[in-house]
UniProtKB/TrEMBL annotation:
Superkingdom of source: Eukaryota
PANTHER family named in the record: CHK KINASE-LIKE DOMAIN-CONTAINING PROTEIN-RELATED, PROTEIN KINASE-LIKE DOMAIN-CONTAINING
Gene name in the database record: LOC124295111
SMART domains: CHK
Pfam family, one: EcKL
Record InterPro entries: CHK_kinase-like (IPR015897), EcKL (IPR004119), Kinase-like_dom_sf (IPR011009)
Chain ranges of the CHK kinase-like domain: 130-323
UniProt name for this protein: Uncharacterized protein LOC124295111
Xref: Gene3D superfamilies: 3.90.1200.10
């Protein structure tokens, strides 16, 4: 792990004093360690900082401990350009420091709600970084991405996503300009060329991999080769903002690693809080829904419970909009289904770009800086995963039958 000289007790003391509004805080020691495993966070380096400090209370020095999450922008590889040109940290800092607290405040008088970790501190100049609360202190944890989310976890996630979307509508009703700045997301014509190349490269890499899958019709490989040159462009079309749509603020990167679950005493998931808001996007809720369906449920849930999840999402969305007295009218369920059909290509994007990262075996997973070679080619072991092959040999013919692989 790279040593960050600026991340020291003096700096953390300054941050805590400002956050707690308490100048008596004296940090005695910090311990910095990786906050995630390799391959769990791709567009930033996550650090967990354990802090020992003293605080004055009633003329006594009281010893306390806490833990912070520090997210540092990558430097020295292709991700640096991607983060800077794509304004990914600008987006996440804006979300955590301003938009998400305002969305949570729409529930005042209805109940308290947590949508994201508490924002603590940020810097948008080099070294670009963001500090937030450590949700592990509240007992939240990430589910097993390799197994995929079972139905219980999916229901908790999808209901909370609906609350997230409804809260953004309530905010926009009060302030019509509140969500305008979140225009990009993963696929957008203004995103940097490095991101376009990466996404197109995923379709190309999958095309090469399916040669080794004789169970697939050879014409699918031929279609993937043609698709790779326009893959990102079609993704941008599928997520294009349309003023007349029913629009929400999408999380934008809604996959299993970006949601942390709270469990009851029976170890059943009862709530979820979301993290990683670098790709948040104002647009159709189909963006988050298709991304989630393409990346996060177990295959059993994908096959048997998609309609149930969609109906649970819709029930939670309309109920929360009613609770928050939104002036925006909710769409009919048939309109929601129509939006999913219209934008269905975005699930192809999620399945080609994100799902290989989800299902890669732990012992061979790589960081994004290792996946993309200097010549622009991909070396992603996720495409060789047995689980990924099992999923994709089922869904690729489905995508083909829907015309989604046609150029």
């Amino acid at each position: 792990m790279e040593i960050l000289n600026w991340l020291n007790p003096t700096f953390i003391q300054k941050v805590l004093r400002k956050t707690e509004q308490d100048d008596s805080i004296e940090v005695s020691d910090i311990n910095v360690k990786p906050g995630t495993s390799k391959g769990d966070n791709y567009l930033g380096d996550l650090l967990r900082v354990n802090v020992d400090f003293l605080r004055s209370k009633k003329h006594e020095k009281i010893a306390e401990t806490t833990s912070l999450i520090v997210k540092v922008a990558p430097r020295g590889d292709f991700r640096e350009d991607l983060v800077r040109s794509g304004k990914l940290y600008d987006t996440e800092i804006s979300m955590l420091s301003n938009t998400l607290p305002r969305m949570e405040n729409t529930h005042v008088g209805v109940g308290t709600i947590s949508l994201a970790p508490r924002y603590i501190y940020s810097q948008i100049e080099v070294p670009i970084h963001l500090i937030m609360e450590d949700l592990k202190l509240k007992g939240l944890r990430i589910a097993d991405r390799h197994a995929g989310l079972d139905l219980e976890h999916c229901l908790v996630a999808i209901r909370k996503l609906a609350v997230f979307h409804a809260s953004s509508i309530a905010l926009r009703d009060k302030d019509p300009q509140a969500l305008i700045r979140y225009e990009r997301g993963l696929c957008h014509e203004s995103q940097p060329a490095s991101l376009v190349a990466f996404v197109n490269g995923c379709a190309e890499a999958l095309g090469k991999q399916v040669v080794k899958w004789p169970e697939l019709n050879p014409r699918i490989r031929e279609k993937l080769v043609k698709l790779s040159s326009v893959f990102y462009e079609k993704g941008s079309e599928s997520t294009r903002f349309e003023q007349d749509d029913f629009n929400v603020l999408n999380h934008g990167d809604f996959w299993v690693n970006n949601m942390m679950f709270r469990y009851d005493e029976r170890k059943k998931p009862v709530d979820a809080i979301f993290v990683d808001f670098q790709l948040s996007k104002h647009g159709s809720p189909a963006i988050d829904l298709l991304y989630f369906f393409g990346t996060s449920p177990s295959d059993d849930v994908r096959i048997h419970h998609r309609d149930l999840l969609l109906r649970e999402y819709y029930a939670s969305l309309t109920a929360t909009m009613a609770d928050l007295k939104c002036s925006t009218e909710a769409p009919g369920f048939d309109k929601l289904q129509e939006a999913l059909r219209k934008r269905a290509f975005y699930e192809v994007i999620a399945s080609f770009v994100i799902l290989p990262l989800v299902l890669v075996e732990v012992e061979v997973q790589k960081g994004l800086d290792e996946i993309i070679k200097p010549d622009g080619t991909h070396e992603n072991p996720g495409f060789e995963s047995k689980i990924y092959r099992k999923v994709m040999t089922r869904v690729l013919p489905l995508f083909d039958s829907m015309g989604l692989l046609d150029v």
